[in-house]
Amino acid sequence: MVIDQTRLPHALVLGKWTTLEDAARGIETMQVRGAPLIGVAAVHGVALALRDDASDDGLAKAVHRLRATRPTAVNLAWALDRCERELAPLAVSERLAAGRELALVVAVEDADTCRAVGLAALPTLSGERRPVQVLTHCNAGWLATVEWGTALAPVYLAHEAGVPVHVWVSETRPRNQGAALTAWELGRAGVPHTVVVDSACGQLMRNGMVHVCLVGADRIAANGDVANKVGTYLKALAAHDCGVPFYVLAPTSTIDHDTPDGSVIPIEERDASEVLALGGVAVTPSGTAARNWAFDITPARLITGIITERGMVPATTEGIASLR
Amino acid sequence: MVIDQTRLPHALVLGKWTTLEDAARGIETMQVRGAPLIGVAAVHGVALALRDDASDDGLAKAVHRLRATRPTAVNLAWALDRCERELAPLAVSERLAAGRELALVVAVEDADTCRAVGLAALPTLSGERRPVQVLTHCNAGWLATVEWGTALAPVYLAHEAGVPVHVWVSETRPRNQGAALTAWELGRAGVPHTVVVDSACGQLMRNGMVHVCLVGADRIAANGDVANKVGTYLKALAAHDCGVPFYVLAPTSTIDHDTPDGSVIPIEERDASEVLALGGVAVTPSGTAARNWAFDITPARLITGIITERGMVPATTEGIASLR
C-alpha cells in the first residue's frame, strides 16, 4: 500500500501497486516522492516486475524502466544498482522471493537509517533558545522516506523528548510540498509549525526568527554540492548572509561519489502546467510560457555540515570522501 | 476609472471611485497597488473627500484615513504630505478645484517620471547579449504606476526601439503579482516573457540565464537599503552570488530621507488567508497557521545601483543624499 501524496493534504488515499508500470507511473507522477522513498519504491517495483518475468531480460527491463522515471535523486540509481547486484547473479527461480525480501530489507534499512540521521542531527537543536526555531523547505519528513524522514527526523526526536520546537514551513512552489505535506505531517505529530511563502524565508532569517535550517537532499556530489528542491539555494544564501547554520540531512545513499560537483547533476524539468495553475485555478493569463525546474544546486561553501546516519561531516571533498 | 487589479489576469474590470472610502478600501484591498500608483490614488482620494467636506477637518480626516491604508510604501505619505502642504493653506472654497487639479498633476508627473526612470535605466540593457535576459519580481510595470512603470519602463522603451528583450517573471507568491499582472502587461505589449516560481530565480542566475535584475521599490532608506515585495532580498543575494547586476528603479518620491536604514521601515503583515489558499483552493491542511509579510528589506550592499528620474546613484548614504 502506498499513500498517494498528490491527494494530500485534503484526502488520505491509499493505493495498491500490482505491476511494474504502477510503480513507475507512481514515481513519475509523484504519488511517492522524496529521494529515499523513491529508492525504496523502485525496489518494490522491481519485485512486482519479477512476478511477471524473473528472467535476465525481465530484470533488465524493469531496472531500465524505473531508472528513467526521475533523473535527479541518486537514491533511485543506488537502489536499482543494488537490485542488479543482488538479484542478477541468482537463479531465475530464486529471484522473485529474493526481490520481495530485498524490498522489505531496504524499507527497514531506510527507517533505521533515517532514525540514525535524526539522532546524529539532534545536537543542531541544542542550545538555550526555546522553542528552537527550525526552517525547512519542501518535505523531507516521513512522507519522503519510510519513517522519520531526514530533515525532520531530529525534529520528531526532539519533540518526543519534550524539547520545544517550532518549524517554519516554506510553501515550496510549484507543488506545495511544504504547505501540503510537511504541514500535514507536523500537524499529525503535534509539532508547532507555521507556513510561509518561499519568498519570506529571507525576511525571517534577517529578523533573527530562525535558529537553524534543516533540509534534505536529492543528490550530494563528491565536493559537497547538494541538489535539492528548487529554492534550497536561495535559503542557503540567506542563512549564510544572516549567520544561520544550514545543515543538509540525508542517508549516505544520497551521496554520488561519481559526480564531481553540482554542475553535472541532471536537473529534472517538469511540465510548465505545474507553474501555470494550482488546483485547477490558472494563475497566469492564458497562453503564458513557464519553465519548471524541480531542483537547484546549493554550493558546498554555503552548507554548515552534511549529516548522515554516520554522523556529521563538513561539506568538503575530504568530508564526503570519508563516507565512501 | 481604475482597473481592479484583484481581477486580473482573468478579467479586466474597471471600477469607479466616488467617495474617500472607495479610494481607501481600493488601496487596502489592493485593487490598486504599486508604490507610485498608491501615491497617485491617495491624491485622487483626497480630491473625492473634498467634494463632501473641504473644511480643515475634512482635509485632515481624509489624509488621516488614507495614511492608514498601507504602511510600507512611502509614496503614500509623500503624496499625502503634498496634499496637506498645497491644499491646507488655501481657502475652503478653493480646495476642491485645487485637489482635482493636484490629482491630475501627480498623475501626469508620475507618467513623466517613470518614462525618465526608464530612459535613465536603458544603459542597463546594453551590451552584446541578445536577447537581453531581464529578471524582475512582483509587478513594477505600468499597472503599478500611471504609465510605463518603474522596473519595466526600460524594458518597454527597449522593446519599442527594437532591442530584443526577454523577461523572466517570478510568480511572486502569495498574491502572484508577477504571474498575474506582469505577465499580463508584458503579453499585451508583446514583450517575450516566461514565468517561473520565486524559488527558481537562484537556479536561473546560477546557470547564466539572467543578464540583469530590475526591481521596483516601496521605500528607499537614507543608506540605500530598499523595502520591496517579499522575496526581493533573496533575488538580490543570488544576483550578488552570481555576479548579476541588480538595479532598483523608482521615482525619487520613493526615497525616505528620514528613515536611516531598512531596519526601521515598517513591514506590512497581511492576512494569513492569502498564503493558505489560492483562488479559493486551500493549499494547506485546515487549521494550519501562516504568517504573511508583504515586503522585505534588501541591504544596500547587494544593490548595484538605484535609478531614479534623475539618473543612477550608488546605493550608499552619499548616493541617496545627492537626491535630496
Account of the protein in words:
Two copies of one chain form a homodimer. The first copy, chain A, has 324 residues and is α/β, with parallel strands linked by helices. Helices cover 40% and strands 16% of the residues of chain A. Chain A is built from eleven helices and 15 strands. Chain A has helices spanning 20-28, 35-52, 56-67, 74-87, 92-121, 153-160, 177-189, 201-206, 232-242, 273-276, 317-321; strands spanning 2-3, 14-15, 132-137, 165-170, 193-196, 212-215, 219-221, 226-229, 246-249, 255-256, 277-278, 281-282, 295-298, 305-308, 311-313. In chain A, the strands form four sheets. Chain A has a seven-stranded mixed beta sheet, sandwiched between helices. In chain A, helix 2 (35-52) runs antiparallel to helix 5 (92-121). The radius of gyration of chain A is 19 Å and the shape is globular. The mean pLDDT of chain A is 96.
Index terms:
globular; 11 helices; homodimer; 4-stranded mixed β-sheet; alpha/beta
